[in-house]
Amino acid sequence: MQSWAAPALPTLPHDPAPAPLRLHSSSVRDLVDVAPNGTARLYVCGITPYDATHLGHAATYLAFDTLVRVWRDRGLQVDYVQNVTDIDDPLLERATRDGVDWVGLAEQQTDLFREDMVALRVVPPNHYVGAVEAMDEIAQAVVQLIDAGVAYTVEDDVYFSVAAAPHFGEVSGLDPATMLALSAERGGDPERPGKKDPLDALLWKAERPDDPAWDSPLGRGRPGWHVECAAIALNRLGGSIDVQGGGSDLVFPHHEHSAVEAEAITGQWPFAKAYVHAGMVGLDGEKMSKSRGNLVFVSQLRRDGVDPMAVRLALLSEHYRADREWTPATLARAQERQHAWREAIDRPTGPNGRDVLAEVRAALSDDLDTPGALAAVDRWAERSGEDANAPELVRDVVDALLGVGLR
Ligand code: 5CA
Ligand code: ZN
User: DSSP 3-state assignment of 343?
Assistant: First the structure.
Protein backbone atom coordinates (compact mmCIF):
# COMPACT_ATOMS: atom_id res chain seq x y z
CA MET A 1 0.00 0.00 0.00
CA GLN A 2 0.94 3.56 -0.49
CA SER A 3 2.31 5.00 2.76
CA TRP A 4 2.20 8.77 3.30
CA ALA A 5 4.54 11.72 2.80
CA ALA A 6 7.38 12.01 5.29
CA PRO A 7 7.90 15.20 7.27
CA ALA A 8 11.35 16.78 7.04
CA LEU A 9 13.51 15.84 10.04
CA PRO A 10 16.08 18.46 11.02
CA THR A 11 19.44 16.99 12.01
CA LEU A 12 20.45 17.85 15.55
CA PRO A 13 23.97 18.17 16.96
CA HIS A 14 25.40 14.66 17.38
CA ASP A 15 25.11 13.10 20.82
CA PRO A 16 28.37 11.19 21.33
CA ALA A 17 27.15 9.31 24.42
CA PRO A 18 23.36 8.96 24.39
CA ALA A 19 21.71 7.68 27.55
CA PRO A 20 20.41 4.11 27.25
CA LEU A 21 16.90 4.07 25.79
CA ARG A 22 14.53 2.37 28.20
CA LEU A 23 11.00 1.36 27.30
CA HIS A 24 8.29 -0.39 29.26
CA SER A 25 7.69 -3.89 27.97
CA SER A 26 4.39 -5.56 28.81
CA SER A 27 6.03 -9.00 28.88
CA VAL A 28 8.59 -7.92 31.47
CA ARG A 29 6.15 -5.58 33.19
CA ASP A 30 9.07 -3.22 33.71
CA LEU A 31 11.46 -1.01 31.79
CA VAL A 32 13.94 -2.75 29.50
CA ASP A 33 16.94 -1.42 27.59
CA VAL A 34 16.18 -1.19 23.89
CA ALA A 35 19.48 -0.97 22.06
CA PRO A 36 19.23 -2.00 18.42
CA ASN A 37 22.47 -2.31 16.53
CA GLY A 38 22.47 -0.18 13.38
CA THR A 39 18.89 -0.88 12.35
CA ALA A 40 15.88 -0.77 14.65
CA ARG A 41 13.00 -3.05 13.67
CA LEU A 42 9.53 -1.87 14.63
CA TYR A 43 6.09 -3.32 13.97
CA VAL A 44 3.10 -1.23 14.97
CA CYS A 45 -0.42 -2.54 14.52
CA GLY A 46 -2.32 -0.33 12.12
CA ILE A 47 -5.94 0.69 11.93
CA THR A 48 -8.98 -1.29 11.03
CA PRO A 49 -10.19 1.30 8.55
CA TYR A 50 -13.45 2.65 9.85
CA ASP A 51 -13.99 5.45 12.39
CA ALA A 52 -10.48 6.70 11.65
CA THR A 53 -8.65 8.68 12.92
CA HIS A 54 -9.95 9.26 16.44
CA LEU A 55 -7.74 10.80 19.09
CA GLY A 56 -7.05 7.41 20.68
CA HIS A 57 -5.59 6.15 17.40
CA ALA A 58 -3.66 9.38 16.99
CA ALA A 59 -2.21 9.18 20.51
CA THR A 60 -0.98 5.63 19.94
CA TYR A 61 0.67 6.43 16.59
CA LEU A 62 2.25 9.54 18.12
CA ALA A 63 3.80 7.42 20.87
CA PHE A 64 5.53 5.23 18.30
CA ASP A 65 6.40 8.26 16.21
CA THR A 66 8.27 9.59 19.23
CA LEU A 67 10.18 6.30 19.38
CA VAL A 68 11.04 6.51 15.67
CA ARG A 69 12.29 10.06 16.15
CA VAL A 70 14.44 9.06 19.14
CA TRP A 71 15.98 6.20 17.17
CA ARG A 72 16.62 8.40 14.15
CA ASP A 73 18.26 11.01 16.39
CA ARG A 74 20.63 8.24 17.53
CA GLY A 75 21.67 7.67 13.93
CA LEU A 76 19.79 4.38 13.62
CA GLN A 77 18.02 3.18 10.51
CA VAL A 78 14.44 2.39 11.37
CA ASP A 79 12.77 -0.47 9.58
CA TYR A 80 9.15 0.23 10.39
CA VAL A 81 6.18 -1.89 9.32
CA GLN A 82 2.53 -1.06 9.91
CA ASN A 83 -0.48 -3.00 8.66
CA VAL A 84 -4.01 -2.05 7.73
CA THR A 85 -6.65 -4.59 8.77
CA ASP A 86 -8.61 -3.99 5.61
CA ILE A 87 -10.63 -7.19 5.96
CA ASP A 88 -12.08 -8.29 9.28
CA ASP A 89 -15.45 -8.80 10.96
CA PRO A 90 -15.76 -5.30 12.50
CA LEU A 91 -15.10 -3.62 9.14
CA LEU A 92 -17.69 -5.81 7.41
CA GLU A 93 -20.21 -5.22 10.18
CA ARG A 94 -19.79 -1.46 9.86
CA ALA A 95 -20.12 -1.56 6.07
CA THR A 96 -23.31 -3.63 6.40
CA ARG A 97 -24.71 -1.33 9.09
CA ASP A 98 -24.14 1.71 6.88
CA GLY A 99 -25.15 0.00 3.65
CA VAL A 100 -21.82 0.72 1.95
CA ASP A 101 -19.29 -1.39 0.12
CA TRP A 102 -16.59 -2.61 2.56
CA VAL A 103 -13.78 -2.09 0.02
CA GLY A 104 -14.78 1.51 -0.55
CA LEU A 105 -15.16 2.15 3.17
CA ALA A 106 -11.68 0.76 3.85
CA GLU A 107 -10.10 2.82 1.07
CA GLN A 108 -11.79 6.03 2.09
CA GLN A 109 -10.91 5.59 5.77
CA THR A 110 -7.31 4.64 5.01
CA ASP A 111 -7.01 7.79 2.88
CA LEU A 112 -8.36 9.86 5.73
CA PHE A 113 -5.90 8.23 8.14
CA ARG A 114 -2.99 9.04 5.81
CA GLU A 115 -4.11 12.67 5.60
CA ASP A 116 -4.34 12.87 9.37
CA MET A 117 -0.88 11.32 9.78
CA VAL A 118 0.58 13.89 7.38
CA ALA A 119 -1.18 16.72 9.23
CA LEU A 120 0.18 15.44 12.56
CA ARG A 121 3.65 15.11 11.01
CA VAL A 122 3.96 11.42 11.79
CA VAL A 123 6.95 9.71 10.17
CA PRO A 124 5.51 7.05 7.83
CA PRO A 125 6.37 3.36 8.08
CA ASN A 126 8.58 2.16 5.25
CA HIS A 127 6.23 -0.76 4.68
CA TYR A 128 2.52 -0.02 4.89
CA VAL A 129 0.75 -3.29 4.20
CA GLY A 130 -2.92 -4.14 3.85
CA ALA A 131 -4.19 -7.58 4.83
CA VAL A 132 -5.89 -7.97 1.45
CA GLU A 133 -2.71 -7.34 -0.53
CA ALA A 134 -0.85 -9.71 1.83
CA MET A 135 -3.45 -12.48 1.50
CA ASP A 136 -1.11 -15.04 -0.09
CA GLU A 137 1.62 -14.62 2.49
CA ILE A 138 -0.86 -14.80 5.36
CA ALA A 139 -2.34 -18.02 3.95
CA GLN A 140 1.21 -19.32 3.57
CA ALA A 141 1.87 -18.60 7.25
CA VAL A 142 -1.21 -20.64 8.13
CA VAL A 143 0.12 -23.50 5.98
CA GLN A 144 3.41 -23.30 7.89
CA LEU A 145 1.55 -23.48 11.20
CA ILE A 146 -0.35 -26.55 10.02
CA ASP A 147 2.93 -28.14 8.86
CA ALA A 148 4.48 -27.32 12.25
CA GLY A 149 1.71 -29.33 13.91
CA VAL A 150 0.35 -26.43 15.97
CA ALA A 151 -2.95 -25.99 14.12
CA TYR A 152 -6.12 -28.06 13.70
CA THR A 153 -9.49 -27.69 12.05
CA VAL A 154 -12.99 -27.21 13.41
CA GLU A 155 -15.36 -27.93 10.55
CA ASP A 156 -13.44 -26.20 7.73
CA ASP A 157 -11.91 -23.46 9.88
CA VAL A 158 -8.30 -23.60 11.07
CA TYR A 159 -7.30 -22.83 14.67
CA PHE A 160 -4.00 -22.27 16.44
CA SER A 161 -3.53 -24.53 19.44
CA VAL A 162 -2.28 -22.67 22.50
CA ALA A 163 -1.35 -26.02 24.07
CA ALA A 164 1.40 -26.24 21.44
CA ALA A 165 2.83 -22.83 22.44
CA PRO A 166 5.08 -23.05 25.50
CA HIS A 167 5.37 -19.27 25.79
CA PHE A 168 1.64 -18.56 25.52
CA GLY A 169 0.75 -16.16 28.35
CA GLU A 170 4.14 -14.51 28.65
CA VAL A 171 3.31 -11.31 26.78
CA SER A 172 0.30 -10.36 28.91
CA GLY A 173 1.05 -12.34 32.09
CA LEU A 174 -2.72 -12.67 32.61
CA ASP A 175 -4.53 -15.45 34.43
CA PRO A 176 -6.75 -17.81 32.38
CA ALA A 177 -10.04 -16.29 33.61
CA THR A 178 -9.02 -12.81 32.52
CA MET A 179 -7.76 -14.18 29.22
CA LEU A 180 -11.12 -15.84 28.62
CA ALA A 181 -13.03 -12.68 29.37
CA LEU A 182 -10.81 -10.54 27.12
CA SER A 183 -10.89 -13.09 24.34
CA ALA A 184 -14.70 -12.97 24.29
CA GLU A 185 -14.64 -9.17 24.34
CA ARG A 186 -11.96 -8.69 21.69
CA GLY A 187 -12.85 -10.78 18.67
CA GLY A 188 -12.21 -14.30 20.00
CA ASP A 189 -14.72 -17.17 20.13
CA PRO A 190 -14.09 -18.99 23.42
CA GLU A 191 -17.58 -20.49 23.36
CA ARG A 192 -17.26 -22.24 20.02
CA PRO A 193 -17.79 -26.01 20.37
CA GLY A 194 -15.11 -28.31 19.00
CA LYS A 195 -12.09 -26.22 19.95
CA LYS A 196 -9.34 -27.94 21.94
CA ASP A 197 -8.94 -24.90 24.19
CA PRO A 198 -11.37 -21.98 24.41
CA LEU A 199 -8.41 -19.62 23.92
CA ASP A 200 -7.33 -21.18 20.62
CA ALA A 201 -7.51 -18.49 17.95
CA LEU A 202 -8.84 -18.58 14.42
CA LEU A 203 -6.14 -18.76 11.74
CA TRP A 204 -8.31 -19.23 8.66
CA LYS A 205 -12.05 -18.87 8.32
CA ALA A 206 -13.53 -20.96 5.51
CA GLU A 207 -15.80 -19.15 3.08
CA ARG A 208 -19.33 -18.40 4.29
CA PRO A 209 -22.24 -17.31 2.11
CA ASP A 210 -22.18 -13.54 1.50
CA ASP A 211 -18.74 -13.20 3.06
CA PRO A 212 -15.65 -12.09 1.11
CA ALA A 213 -13.21 -14.94 0.48
CA TRP A 214 -9.92 -15.56 -1.28
CA ASP A 215 -8.46 -18.68 -2.92
CA SER A 216 -5.67 -20.29 -0.94
CA PRO A 217 -3.99 -23.66 -0.35
CA LEU A 218 -6.43 -23.90 2.58
CA GLY A 219 -9.44 -23.52 0.33
CA ARG A 220 -11.44 -20.33 -0.10
CA GLY A 221 -11.71 -18.16 2.98
CA ARG A 222 -10.08 -15.33 4.86
CA PRO A 223 -7.47 -15.06 7.60
CA GLY A 224 -7.76 -14.59 11.34
CA TRP A 225 -6.54 -11.34 12.83
CA HIS A 226 -3.44 -12.37 14.80
CA VAL A 227 -1.78 -14.34 12.01
CA GLU A 228 -2.22 -11.34 9.73
CA CYS A 229 0.15 -9.27 11.86
CA ALA A 230 2.51 -12.20 12.54
CA ALA A 231 2.93 -12.88 8.80
CA ILE A 232 3.23 -9.25 7.71
CA ALA A 233 5.83 -8.58 10.41
CA LEU A 234 7.89 -11.75 9.89
CA ASN A 235 8.11 -11.37 6.13
CA ARG A 236 9.52 -7.85 6.35
CA LEU A 237 11.38 -7.70 9.66
CA GLY A 238 12.34 -11.31 10.45
CA GLY A 239 11.81 -13.23 13.63
CA SER A 240 13.21 -11.20 16.48
CA ILE A 241 12.19 -7.60 16.21
CA ASP A 242 13.02 -4.78 18.60
CA VAL A 243 9.55 -3.46 19.36
CA GLN A 244 6.01 -4.57 18.73
CA GLY A 245 3.66 -1.71 19.43
CA GLY A 246 0.02 -0.83 19.76
CA GLY A 247 -2.53 0.35 22.27
CA SER A 248 -2.97 -1.52 25.55
CA ASP A 249 -6.19 -3.08 24.25
CA LEU A 250 -3.99 -5.18 21.96
CA VAL A 251 -1.90 -6.84 24.69
CA PHE A 252 -4.37 -9.71 24.90
CA PRO A 253 -5.33 -11.59 22.84
CA HIS A 254 -3.77 -9.92 19.80
CA HIS A 255 -0.12 -9.54 20.72
CA GLU A 256 -0.13 -12.67 22.86
CA HIS A 257 -1.27 -14.71 19.89
CA SER A 258 0.71 -13.02 17.14
CA ALA A 259 3.90 -13.56 19.19
CA VAL A 260 3.40 -17.30 19.70
CA GLU A 261 2.20 -17.79 16.13
CA ALA A 262 5.36 -16.05 14.89
CA GLU A 263 7.45 -18.23 17.19
CA ALA A 264 5.83 -21.40 15.87
CA ILE A 265 6.86 -20.35 12.35
CA THR A 266 10.43 -19.21 13.05
CA GLY A 267 11.41 -21.08 16.22
CA GLN A 268 12.64 -17.75 17.60
CA TRP A 269 11.58 -16.35 20.97
CA PRO A 270 10.87 -13.67 21.98
CA PHE A 271 9.16 -12.37 18.87
CA ALA A 272 9.82 -8.83 20.13
CA LYS A 273 12.45 -7.67 22.58
CA ALA A 274 9.91 -5.18 23.93
CA TYR A 275 6.12 -5.21 23.70
CA VAL A 276 5.25 -1.55 24.07
CA HIS A 277 1.68 -0.45 24.72
CA ALA A 278 0.08 2.96 24.81
CA GLY A 279 -2.64 3.79 27.31
CA MET A 280 -6.24 4.36 26.29
CA VAL A 281 -7.56 7.81 25.54
CA GLY A 282 -11.04 8.33 26.90
CA LEU A 283 -13.84 10.82 26.60
CA ASP A 284 -16.35 11.54 29.36
CA GLY A 285 -14.96 8.77 31.55
CA GLU A 286 -15.05 6.00 28.94
CA LYS A 287 -12.38 4.61 26.60
CA MET A 288 -12.75 6.25 23.19
CA SER A 289 -13.90 3.38 21.05
CA LYS A 290 -15.68 2.64 17.86
CA SER A 291 -18.15 0.39 19.61
CA ARG A 292 -19.11 3.08 22.15
CA GLY A 293 -19.12 5.80 19.51
CA ASN A 294 -17.66 8.42 21.87
CA LEU A 295 -15.13 9.62 19.34
CA VAL A 296 -13.32 12.85 18.60
CA PHE A 297 -11.76 12.77 15.14
CA VAL A 298 -8.51 14.42 14.08
CA SER A 299 -10.16 15.34 10.79
CA GLN A 300 -13.08 17.03 12.57
CA LEU A 301 -10.70 19.13 14.66
CA ARG A 302 -8.84 20.04 11.48
CA ARG A 303 -12.11 21.06 9.83
CA ASP A 304 -12.88 23.16 12.90
CA GLY A 305 -9.65 25.06 12.23
CA VAL A 306 -7.62 23.55 15.07
CA ASP A 307 -3.91 23.50 14.26
CA PRO A 308 -2.79 19.84 14.08
CA MET A 309 0.38 20.87 15.92
CA ALA A 310 -1.75 21.87 18.90
CA VAL A 311 -3.46 18.46 18.73
CA ARG A 312 -0.03 16.86 18.68
CA LEU A 313 1.16 18.89 21.66
CA ALA A 314 -2.03 18.06 23.53
CA LEU A 315 -1.60 14.32 22.97
CA LEU A 316 2.08 14.45 23.96
CA SER A 317 1.35 16.38 27.14
CA GLU A 318 0.65 13.20 29.08
CA HIS A 319 2.72 10.05 29.24
CA TYR A 320 1.97 7.58 26.46
CA ARG A 321 1.34 4.75 28.90
CA ALA A 322 -1.21 6.65 30.95
CA ASP A 323 -4.89 6.08 30.37
CA ARG A 324 -6.13 9.63 29.95
CA GLU A 325 -9.11 11.79 29.25
CA TRP A 326 -9.45 14.13 26.31
CA THR A 327 -11.08 17.35 27.43
CA PRO A 328 -11.38 20.81 25.88
CA ALA A 329 -8.92 21.96 28.56
CA THR A 330 -6.28 19.54 27.25
CA LEU A 331 -6.46 21.25 23.88
CA ALA A 332 -6.61 24.76 25.33
CA ARG A 333 -3.45 24.17 27.38
CA ALA A 334 -1.65 22.88 24.29
CA GLN A 335 -2.69 25.96 22.34
CA GLU A 336 -1.29 28.22 25.08
CA ARG A 337 1.93 26.24 25.11
CA GLN A 338 2.24 26.42 21.33
CA HIS A 339 1.77 30.17 21.50
CA ALA A 340 4.41 30.58 24.24
CA TRP A 341 6.91 28.44 22.35
CA ARG A 342 6.33 30.33 19.12
CA GLU A 343 6.96 33.62 20.84
CA ALA A 344 10.14 32.30 22.43
CA ILE A 345 11.65 30.97 19.22
CA ASP A 346 10.87 34.26 17.47
CA ARG A 347 13.11 36.14 19.91
CA PRO A 348 16.64 36.99 18.71
CA THR A 349 18.28 35.20 21.65
CA GLY A 350 17.37 32.79 24.42
CA PRO A 351 18.81 30.65 27.20
CA ASN A 352 21.32 27.97 26.24
CA GLY A 353 19.75 25.72 23.60
CA ARG A 354 22.16 22.80 24.12
CA ASP A 355 20.79 22.36 27.63
CA VAL A 356 17.25 22.00 26.30
CA LEU A 357 18.44 19.49 23.73
CA ALA A 358 20.13 17.42 26.46
CA GLU A 359 17.05 17.59 28.70
CA VAL A 360 14.65 16.60 25.93
CA ARG A 361 16.90 13.71 24.90
CA ALA A 362 17.20 12.55 28.51
CA ALA A 363 13.43 12.68 29.07
CA LEU A 364 12.62 10.78 25.90
CA SER A 365 15.25 8.12 26.68
CA ASP A 366 13.35 7.45 29.88
CA ASP A 367 10.39 5.53 28.44
CA LEU A 368 9.47 8.36 26.06
CA ASP A 369 8.70 10.85 28.80
CA THR A 370 7.08 13.48 26.60
CA PRO A 371 5.64 15.47 29.56
CA GLY A 372 9.20 15.79 30.86
CA ALA A 373 10.42 16.86 27.43
CA LEU A 374 7.65 19.45 27.09
CA ALA A 375 8.43 20.81 30.56
CA ALA A 376 12.09 21.31 29.55
CA VAL A 377 11.00 23.40 26.55
CA ASP A 378 8.52 25.31 28.76
CA ARG A 379 11.33 26.26 31.16
CA TRP A 380 13.45 27.45 28.27
CA ALA A 381 10.60 29.49 26.80
CA GLU A 382 9.82 31.13 30.15
CA ARG A 383 13.33 32.51 30.64
CA SER A 384 15.41 34.96 28.66
CA GLY A 385 19.06 34.52 27.72
CA GLU A 386 21.90 35.65 25.51
CA ASP A 387 22.43 32.64 23.24
CA ALA A 388 21.82 33.83 19.66
CA ASN A 389 21.76 30.24 18.33
CA ALA A 390 19.24 29.03 20.86
CA PRO A 391 15.92 29.94 19.18
CA GLU A 392 16.81 28.10 16.00
CA LEU A 393 18.25 25.11 17.83
CA VAL A 394 15.21 24.80 20.08
CA ARG A 395 12.94 25.07 17.07
CA ASP A 396 14.85 22.15 15.52
CA VAL A 397 14.73 20.14 18.76
CA VAL A 398 10.98 20.57 18.99
CA ASP A 399 10.62 19.70 15.32
CA ALA A 400 12.95 16.67 15.16
CA LEU A 401 12.23 15.03 18.50
CA LEU A 402 8.68 16.08 19.29
CA GLY A 403 7.44 16.43 15.72
CA VAL A 404 6.00 19.86 16.42
CA GLY A 405 6.64 22.35 13.65
CA LEU A 406 6.44 25.83 15.13
CA ARG A 407 6.43 27.81 11.90
N1 5CA B 1 -6.20 -3.26 13.13
C2 5CA B 1 -6.07 -3.57 14.53
C3 5CA B 1 -4.64 -3.82 14.90
S4 5CA B 1 -3.87 -5.03 13.89
C5 5CA B 1 -6.67 -2.46 15.40
O6 5CA B 1 -6.63 -2.61 16.60
N7 5CA B 1 -7.19 -1.42 14.77
S8 5CA B 1 -7.94 -0.20 15.51
O9 5CA B 1 -8.31 0.69 14.45
O10 5CA B 1 -8.97 -0.69 16.33
O11 5CA B 1 -6.90 0.49 16.43
C12 5CA B 1 -5.72 1.05 15.87
C13 5CA B 1 -4.73 1.36 17.00
O14 5CA B 1 -5.26 2.35 17.86
C15 5CA B 1 -4.41 0.14 17.89
O16 5CA B 1 -3.04 0.18 18.26
C17 5CA B 1 -5.28 0.38 19.11
O18 5CA B 1 -4.72 -0.22 20.26
C19 5CA B 1 -5.25 1.89 19.20
N20 5CA B 1 -6.42 2.45 19.91
C21 5CA B 1 -7.73 2.18 19.67
N22 5CA B 1 -8.52 2.88 20.53
C23 5CA B 1 -7.69 3.62 21.31
C24 5CA B 1 -7.87 4.56 22.38
N25 5CA B 1 -9.08 4.91 22.82
N26 5CA B 1 -6.77 5.12 22.94
C27 5CA B 1 -5.53 4.80 22.50
N28 5CA B 1 -5.28 3.93 21.49
C29 5CA B 1 -6.34 3.34 20.90
ZN1 ZN C 1 -2.08 -6.12 14.69
Answer: helix
